[in-house]
Structure formats: structure tokens, C-alpha cells
């Protein structure tokens, strides 16, 4: 295609040309007023000079038409696959694709928009925060296109869009059309968590604020029943009223992560039950652990326990120590004693159950604690309490604490022999699998890379598990479950040697910390435990077990489908497995013995916060660009018409795309219209004729 244009290349600066032109015009006007002879010849001469100075030329351009660009954005998010929306979307996409391809001079750019579900991707089609980012996907698709080439944008969507329309889309001059994949009168029930604490104290109630709405229904006030589960365990159902914020109270029973599931009963006209469910992750924390430390005879390691417990700000320590046994009297009158009587009865009878852990450190029968109080401690263990006994030579003596009602809960009985001599405490094969002693620094070598101990109280195990041993395979650390409670025996009083760094010391702090937390039923230290975590599109499953092998784990996806996952042993007692996931929601796991539950992606995805087809998110851009938004209940797609920019862009059964008629100049040639020499010759001739006329 060719185009001709008139061009100028002045031989003098513009300001000089302008000044000269003004001066000539003034002189000619003055001459006309005075009716001077030869004015017209002078006008011709000056005009010829002006043309010579302007240096006019004819420009010939070879132009190539440039295609306009139209964007077809197809929403393939989860919300736009509900009911028959998925089929309707595909039918509309196919029809619009064919009609756009049939338009001459139109380039089609198709964009598939999905919701990333927060599984670790962050691109034009998704977001790590979840939701449908349709506008960002469109903006990326036309980032390299000049605004004057954009013919229009057509989005096939349910209107559930979770990013803001950039200003650049509104200023292109191209219409934005939204084909909404459903009617505008849909009804759906939604459950929304308005406020949920991330942490709560174990044993105390936490308050959740939630709301159930029947969106789109005429009667928005109904009674709805909620089912609540914590780590898969069902709680009594709760009844709430729809359309208003309600508060429910929940009590966490263990520390660490608690997965709270809340599900509302189906309402009228449900589109999906996905948004009837909500998940809250609450971390249980213990409020100042109360520990009762009962010390017997003073010894070099007595302060090990006290310092370890006092160093933890979360521990409230009560230290019961015997400063003067009853058999020793110094004759001091009672009225001169300044010591306050120790509240023995309150501690060992009235308030015993308030303690999370009771520790006996080299305690022997001395007539200070009545047998009834020791019986209370045995009952305390039976009912779920925790008891740790650090034994010294007193445990092998006739005054051993084993010769009390506590014998019924202790797993190892003393033989009466005290073994002396240096030895390295060694983790047993069973201990290598147990969370309390597995992976202790230095335990992977033989002998272990830590200092020696020099005393061991010989004992015979009746029950329990031996995690560490001394010389000759003698039990050193014995753990046992007694009814609802737990008991641990450390059959040596030389752990303090590690604290003092003797022969390099040892991991006494970590070992005793794990031991105390296992006694207090810390979930992470359970011998049999199935755990799962979802990170970035990968589900990681970990099985802690005392067995040498573990069965496959059945993984139930949020949509109800299942898959079997085989675990492999990473270290003694620890099996792991991984699988790729592409769904957001709760994954339930079971190996036939243990169960676990974990959430993938956002706990309560934006994509399902409201799944009704809506014009709200696209309405502003539609109005600003002169486009259209229409609810399509069947699979009939509108026709395409090419329009001039600025004209009406939609009508009954059709939508318009701009015909911008842009072009690219491929070549330019210049042809001089009049040569300066010829113009000067004409001017000279005109001046001569003017002089001749004036000379008459």
C-alpha cells in the first residue's frame, strides 16, 4: 500500500523564515492600500522566493498494515469448574476462538488463568496467596503490545477474580468484555472464620468467631449446625444462626499443632460444599509447666536438675529438699526457729495433681514423707501424671524408695548392687529408634563421643523399655507407661559429669530435656507417630515407629480420591515419603494404626470464599472501557464485530473489537516539487515585470 504526502525542508531557520514572511506580507498589504503599481508582480516574486526557501517535496510511503491484537482470557480456576461452568466455559472458548480467528487483520492471544492454590507457584496464572489473578495474566499477555494495536479483551469467567484491574487496561481505549458463566441469581452457603487465635494455652478454652451466610437466598436467617473436629476427633455439634457473627469455645488438649475443622450443614441451593468447611491451625502451648523436684541427700549433681529446670522460663519449679533429717537435732528451741514450715501436705496431697512432672533425685526413706504421700504419687502416675527418678546408691539400700508404694509404678527393681568404674553410657538398639535418645550428638560412634560415668545402680527390668545401657548391658535409662501416666528411671547419679564437661562432657541438656518432655506427653516425642506437612506442592509424610518396617500410608486427597504411599527408612525408627499434590485443602493419612491430617495451600482459599457468578469484580473495568458484561446461562456465544475506536462496543447478541487500522512504514522516497533555481528565476522575472510596470 502506497501513500503520498507533502513535505518541506526549509533552507533557512524557521524563525528567519517566519520573520521574513511577516515582513513581506506587511509590505504587500501597505502597497495594496496605496494602490501602488506592480503589486501583483511583486506578490508573485515574493511567493516564488518563499517556495524556494520552503523547499517543498512529495513524500511517498510504502505502508504495511499491522494486525490488531485481541486477548481471550479463559478462567479455568476451581470455582469456574463447579456445576456446568466448566463445560460452558470450554464451549464459549471454542466459539469465541473460531470467531476471532475468522476476523481479518486480528491476532488472537489466548490466556489460560488458573488458581495456584498457594502451593508454591507465583506466576501470571496464580498466586502463592491463592485466588484467581485474571487481570495480571491479561496484563502480562499484552505487555509487548502498543496500546494503539489492542482491539479488545474478552474474558470468560465466573467473575471471582482476586487481583485488581491495573490502570493500564483502562487507558488502552480497547473495550473489555466479560462473558460470565452462569446466572446472576445463584444461592450458596458459606462459612467464614472472622477471628481465630494462632496460639492457645493447653487445657484452657479458646474463642473462635465465625459466620455462616446463605448468600443470595431470600431468607438469610436460618439455624445451621456445625460439626467440629480437632485432629480428626469429633466434638459435640454446635448450632448457630446464619447471617450473624457467632462465638464458639474450643479447648486444646495437647501442645503443638492442632488442626481444627469446622463444617456447616448444607444449605438451600448449594453450589459447592467446599466453602461450608473451614480449617484453623492453632498451636497449643503449655502455661508455665509446674515441676516438683524432691531431692534427697546433697550430692555433686544436685544442682544439675535445679539449674536445668530454672533455666527454662516456662518452668515453675518447686524444690522440696531436706536440709535437716528428723534424726538430727541441735537443741534449738522451737520459738527461735526462723524457718517457715514446708507445705508438705499441700504439695503431696492437696495440689499434687497440679504438677506436670515429679522428680525424685537420690531420695530415700527418711521419715520425712509419710507412706500415704508416696501412695498419692503412685496414684498420680496411674491417673496420667509423670514421674522421673534419678537413682543413686540410696536406691540399692534398705531405705530404697522402691520399698514404698512407688514400687508399683517403677519398671526396674534394684538388685542391691552398685557398680563402680568408668564406662561410656551407650544408646541401645531400641534407644536408637526412640525419639528421646535417637540422634543424640556423639551416639553414632563406638564408643560414643562423650565422657564416662563412674557409677551404675544395678536393677532388673520387669517392664518398660531400656534406651541406654551401662557396662555388661545393664539398664541405665528405662521408660515405661503405667496406666494413664509415664515413668522414667535414670539408674545413675553421674549425669552431672557431662554438665561439668568431664572428658568433653556430653549431651546431658538435650537428653534430659527430651526425657522430661516425653514424660509430659509432648506429641513430637511419641514413639508411634504419623506426621505430614505440605510445602510448595509436595506432601512430606514422616512415620516415627519402634518397629523395623512400616506399612504403606493411604493418602486421602481433599476431593476424596486416595493414593498409597510407600515410606523408606531415613534413620532408625524414622520413615519418610513424598508425593506431588495439586489440590488445596485437607489431606488425611492413615497406615492402619496411626492417622494424621494436614492442610495444603491457604487454609480457607479465596477461590471458595464466594463462588457465585458475579459482575462486581469486572464491572468497573467494563464501564470504564465501554465494554460489556453478560450472564450466559447456555452455551451461546456472542458474535464479533469490528468497530471504530470510541464507537458503541456491544449490542444485542454481539460484542465489538476495535479496528485500529494501524500500519508500519516499510520505505519512504522523496521527490522535489520545485527546484530552488527555478523558483529564483521565476522570482527574478516577476521582479523585472514589476519594475517595468512601475516605470511606465
UniProtKB/TrEMBL annotation:
Domain of life of the source: Bacteria
UniProt xrefs under InterPro entries: Class_I_gatase-like
Signal peptide (UniProt feature, chain positions): none
Keywords: Membrane, Transmembrane, Transmembrane helix
Region of interest (Disordered), residue spans: 551-577
Transmembrane segments: 15-33, 40-59
Keyword Transmembrane: yes
Start-end of Polar residues biased regions: 551-569
Protein's name according to its UniProt entry: Glutamine amidotransferase domain-containing protein
